[in-house]
Amino acid sequence: MVTKDDVLNALKKVADPHMGISIVDMGLIKNIEIDEENNVSFELIPTNPACMSVMGMAIGSKEAVKKIEGVKDVKVIVKGHMMEEELNNIINE
Questions:
Q1: Domain spanning 4-91: which superfamily?
Q2: Confidence of residue 93 (pLDDT cuts 50, 70, 90)
Q3: CA distance linking residue 71 with residue 37, whole number of Å
C-alpha cells in the first residue's frame, strides 16, 4: 500500500524553480488522498495566483509520484491560480 509519507518523500524531490526549495517544504502540497487501488490525488497551491512555474511544478510532481512502486494513477489539482481550470484540464487529461 502506498502511504502519504511515500508521496511526500517523492514530492520533496520537486523544487520551486525560483526558490530552489522543495514544494513540500514550501507548504504548496495539500490534501493528499490515496484510495484502495493506490490512485493518488493531491492539491498544489502556487505561491501566487499568476505563478508562471505552476505547470512545470505540477507536471514534475505528477511524474515524481508516478515513480512510486504500486501507484496506479496520479491526479494533481492546482488551486488558487487564475487559470486553474485550464491547467487542471491539461495536467490531468
A1: Fe-S cluster assembly (FSCA) (3.30.300.130)
A2: confident
A3: 8
